[in-house]
Q: What sequence folds into this?
């Protein structure tokens, strides 16, 4: 063993980071992820990919999921792994743990042992998946949640539909969290949250305009291919805002050079 002699550098590889895409139903979250990486594997915990050309398999039980993690360890070609949706992944894990413990609900086990068992099982699966060296992309839907302040007032926030404990497990793992939504005739991906939207990222050297200021919202166009191309441009700090200045705007001009997205 030895102590480090210098600081480590932040990774410039997109799929070294865990990505979380939330958004309205049918907006195209699965279609967007179909373009990610060299060969994305979609673990379909709930139906939704029948009309799409994907490398996909249905996940009907937690044993199925653990089995696919073992298969992914043997096949290095798939990257990233897309979990669609994180909500149903948690639900299946929840049922698996309850059945294993012989209980109907985690609260039936005293001292929080049931809830802790679900948490440990979820975290263990992410650890196994992360050890494969593959990217991880999670998908969830969104809903409006009322947040009450200490002064008695309240406001609504757009947040994932994840159950409470599922949010406690998944959100701390996420490095890049985008909220996918309609924006006029097109669509946008908000990657910096505010008081009305849950989103954000912890990557300081990426998602910047060419002038160095942070990108808050990425224009995603009208097709899934264009959406991923724009997402990649934002990651590579190649977006240029119209009008300049330091205030983030959702309307940007893209480089004139045509960007092609390769798929296996």
A:
């Amino acid at each position: 063993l030895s102590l480090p002699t210098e600081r480590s550098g932040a990774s410039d590889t997109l799929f070294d980071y865990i990505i979380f895409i939330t958004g309205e139903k049918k907006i195209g979250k699965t279609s967007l992820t179909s373009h990610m990486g060299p060969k994305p594997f979609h673990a379909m915990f709930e139906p939704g990919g029948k009309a799409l050309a994907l490398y996909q398999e249905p996940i009907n039980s937690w044993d199925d999921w653990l089995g696919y993690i073992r298969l992914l360890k043997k096949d290095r070609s798939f990257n990233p792994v897309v979990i669609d949706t994180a909500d149903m992944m948690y639900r299946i894990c929840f049922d698996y743990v309850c059945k294993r413990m012989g209980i109907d609900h985690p609260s039936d086990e005293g001292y929080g042992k049931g809830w802790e068992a679900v948490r440990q099982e979820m975290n263990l699966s992410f650890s196994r998946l992360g050890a494969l060296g593959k990217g991880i992309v999670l998908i969830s839907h969104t809903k409006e949640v009322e947040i009450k302040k200490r002064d008695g007032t309240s406001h609504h926030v757009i947040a994932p539909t994840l159950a409470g404990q599922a949010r406690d497990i998944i959100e701390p793992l996420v490095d890049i969290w985008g909220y996918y939504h309609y924006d006029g005739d097109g669509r946008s991906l908000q990657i910096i949250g505010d008081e009305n939207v849950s989103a954000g990222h912890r990557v300081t050297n990426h998602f910047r305009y060419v002038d160095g200021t942070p990108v808050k919202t990425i224009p995603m166009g009208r097709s899934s291919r264009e959406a991923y191309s724009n997402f990649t441009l934002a990651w590579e700090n190649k977006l240029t805002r119209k009008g300049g200045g330091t205030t983030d705007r959702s309307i940007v001009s893209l480089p004139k050079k045509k960007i092609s997205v390769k798929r296996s």
Summary: The longest strand covers residues 136-148. DSSP finds six helices and twelve strands in the chain.
